[in-house]
Write a structure and sequence with these properties.
The chain has 234 residues and is of the alpha/beta class. The chain has eight helices and seven strands; from the N terminus they run βαβαβαβαβαβααβα.
Length: 234
C-alpha cells in the first residue's frame, strides 16, 4: 500500500496539562504505522494565556513533523481550525481535539472504509459512540442542539459536533467561505458542504469525554446563536 499523506489539524487553547500526553500518543501512533502514513501535525494556539505556546514550540524544535501556528488573542475554535486548514500541505486533513477524546486509532477505520485516492471531494464526520457516561445536562443540551440544527439546516448528520473530521480534496476556495469562529464551526462546514454537493460520510467512533470540558453554558448559548446565523450566511 502506498503511504497516505495526511495533515492533522489540532486547535489548542490553554492545553498545557494535556498536550504532552496527546503529542506522545500521536507520535507513537504514527511511528507504529510509519509504513502507512506520511504526516504532519499542525497545532494552532488560539491565544492561550498559559504555557501552551511555549510547550508547542519546544516540541516543534525536536519533532520534524510538528508545525505550530499562533496569534495573540483568543478568537475561537473555528478560527483556529481554519488557520490550520489554510496551512495544511496534504489533501487529506484530519481535525482532532487537543485532548484526543477521539483516539488516533480511530483514524485507521477511516482509511479502511473509504478510498482516499478518488479525485472527488468528501468529508468524513465522526459519529460518537460514548465510552463513558455523560451528565444529564450534557445529554439534554446535546439533544436540544441536534434538534435545532436538524430543523434549521438538516445537514443529514445528527452528531455534527464530534471532534473527528476528515476533509479529502477540499479546495482553498471552500475553506475561504467559512465564517464561524466558535464551536459551531463544524455545523457550518457540513452545511456548506451539503449545499455544494460534497459528500458527507459518517463514521462511528468511540468518544472519551473529558470531565473538564470547556463547553460551558455560555459557549452552548453561543453555538445556538451561531447555528441560526449559519442558516442565513451566503
Amino acid at each position: 500500500m502506498n503511504q497516505i499523506e495526511i495533515s492533522v489539524v489540532i486547535p489548542c487553547y490553554n492545553e498545557e496539562k494535556i498536550l504532552p500526553k496527546s503529542i506522545k500518543a500521536l507520535e507513537r501512533f504514527f511511528y507504529i504505522h510509519r509504513k502507512n502514513f506520511l504526516y504532519e501535525l499542525i497545532f494552532i494556539d488560539d491565544g492561550s494565556t498559559d504555557s501552551t505556546l511555549e510547550l508547542l514550540n519546544s516540541y516543534a524544535e525536536s519533532g520534524k513533523n510538528i508545525r505550530v501556528l499562533n496569534y495573540k488573542y483568543n478568537v475561537g475554535k473555528g478560527h483556529a481550525v481554519r488557520r490550520g486548514l489554510n496551512h495544511a500541505k496534504y489533501n487529506n486533513i484530519l481535525v482532532l481535539d487537543a485532548d484526543l477524546s477521539v483516539r488516533p486509532d480511530e483514524v485507521l477505520s477511516v482509511f479502511e472504509r473509504y478510498e482516499l485516492d478518488r479525485p472527488e471531494s468528501f468529508i468524513v464526520c465522526g459519529i460518537r459512540k460514548y465510552a463513558v457516561p455523560q451528565t444529564k445536562i450534557r445529554i439534554f443540551l446535546g439533544k436540544a442542539y441536534s434538534l435545532l440544527h436538524k430543523v434549521l439546516l438538516n445537514v443529514g448528520v445528527w452528531d455534527s459536533q464530534c471532534p473527528l473530521k476528515l476533509l479529502h480534496n477540499i479546495s482553498d476556495e471552500f475553506v475561504g467561505e467559512l465564517k464561524i469562529d466558535g464551536f459551531a464551526y463544524d455545523l457550518e462546514l457540513l452545511y456548506r458542504a451539503k449545499k455544494k454537493g460534497i459528500h458527507i460520510l459518517p463514521l462511528v467512533v468511540s468518544y472519551h469525554n473529558e470531565p473538564d470540558s470547556r463547553v460551558t453554558f455560555f459557549k452552548v448559548l453561543e453555538m445556538f446563536v451561531d447555528t441560526i446565523k449559519i442558516r442565513f450566511l451566503k
